[in-house]
Specification:
The protein has an eight-stranded antiparallel β-sheet. Helix content is 36%, strand content 23%. Bound molecules: 6-O-phosphono-alpha-D-glucopyranose. The site of 6-O-phosphono-alpha-D-glucopyranose has 16 residues, from helix 10.
Length: 614
Amino acid sequence: MCGIVGIIGKPNVEKELLKGLKKLEYRGYDSAGMAFLDKDGGLRILKETGKIVNLEEVVLAQDIESTVGIGHTRWATHGAPNRDNAHPHFTDKLALVHNGIIENYKELRVELSAKGYPFRSETDTEVIAWLVTDYLNQGLKEFNAVEKAVARLKGAYALAIIFNRCPDLIIGARQGSPLAIGYGEDAMYLGSDALALSSYTDTLCYLEEGDLFFMKKRGAKIKDKHGRWVARKIKTLDLAQADSDKGDFDHYMLKEIFEQTQTIKKTVDYVFDLKKKTPKDLKDILGFPAEIDFRSLKKITLVACGTSYYACCVAKYWIEHLAPISIEIDVASEFRYRTPFMEEGGLAVFISQSGETADTLAALRYCKKYGQKILSIVNVPESTIDRESDVSLFTQAGPEIGVASTKAFTNQLVILLWLAVKIAFEKNVLKEEKQDKLIQTLKDLPGLIEEGLQDSKKLEVIASKITHAKTALYLGRGISYPIAMEGALKLKEISYIHAEAYAAGEMKHGPIALVDESVPVVCFAPFNQLFEKTASNIEEIIARKANVILISDKEGLDAMGDKIENRIEIPKTNIFSEPFLTVLPAQIFAYYVAVLKENNVDQPRNLAKSVTVE
Ligand code: G6P
């Protein structure tokens, strides 16, 4: 949801800004822009609609000599994605970039317009530019003007501002949207996340909620929300973690799908510490975390958004299968506006790839207020959700750049499976045979994933048959139902084909009315105790001439015989391995449909990777 960068003290600042913006493009790509101070002290603004490459073309054609600048990549909230609404927004005194939403912008706009300030855009952001300018016009110094302006803002913001009178100054603030300061040699940097800063430096500090700061090329000073000057902890970033390119793959998404073998191994190693010991029984691998008393736990609440929410749905099946505990799951944007009852001392679990999703964070804060222990599963250490949690567990997926989440999901599942086992073990309900089966499943997972990725070319052929479809159905039963939901989401996100997921048994209660020969129906039906029931539902669909794509193991495919032409074989599964193996073909299938439709797979229209607005 918009990304910002800032640099002070570095020659060729425009080229450096482009580097950071490219790393942030996953946060939004409706437009991009930058502002810098010319050698004669004048402010120059360059903006373009669309992707960073459009901006790059314009920037590289200019003669620029500057060492201070700010940049922005936009995911439109207020106002269409056109050049006027693109950031930076500017006045005669300053230029500003913003990530977040200013909720009281309408009142401020009325007030500032009445004073004669000429608004140029439809954005909420522009009011900040004119508000700071108004305080400067009243005679305040730059820092005081920004301090006074942000005190009047309601909503979320990460801000960076440069001023035409000040060649060695960037002022910024953080409230509700992430921002980090990077330290270089005779240069300072600013970025929405560590990934952006990794282009410049490995030394950084994260700003806290309510922080206001100024930076010059030799350092930064930070004032906290209580008005005290503070020092934030400076950390060293693991640049290898932050670095990411497509390698030999055509798209990040495909690379990330194929990375699942290695990343899942890393997450299994991380959780179970298998590197150091070969567990004989679960006591060896379930020592952590001491902060949570799983034994007395009566209820567990799992909350997330998007793909991470479907990971919660899978976990519900596992936890219910293994342990006697009440479990509630919800999408964060609904959960936080209900009034869910939570007994003091319960456990609330938040799942987020980015660790920055605004709704998930708001739900976390709500649960904290009601006395829940907070456990988070995130892919980005030091993200806001990590920092606000009592305990965090880290998926080892590495940076995920493709907007449609793939490897983050399966890595979340590894940790959630561990969580289910942990609860059952602590509650003393895990039978020995099941313990062995679980340990074996986890050890086998990377190999199974590798096997599951073998049939990808066949999926391309099947994908070519549905590119013209207007709508598709995804069906699954039991633990394959959430995978049907995730599969449908993948197809929607990148192919723009409407796709709807249903519990297979619900077909006859409505969606079967949609079925005819033009509707592809993707069915997840491994050969397990639910197979016969799903097989009957598949028969009902075949009878209505739909184009069935069946994802099952050898026994399942054999049982359906040659009634089904489009067949994808997955390895034999059990309830623990099933979601890992069924989601792979769903990811690859969606990928090929999107590629064949010549869509932008990694940056699908209207979406952003990290949603930091509510
Ligand atoms: C966005 C992304 C999805 C992601 C969701 C939740 O919608 O495009 O891929 O699943 O946010 O993000 P999180 O970072 O909290 O997992």
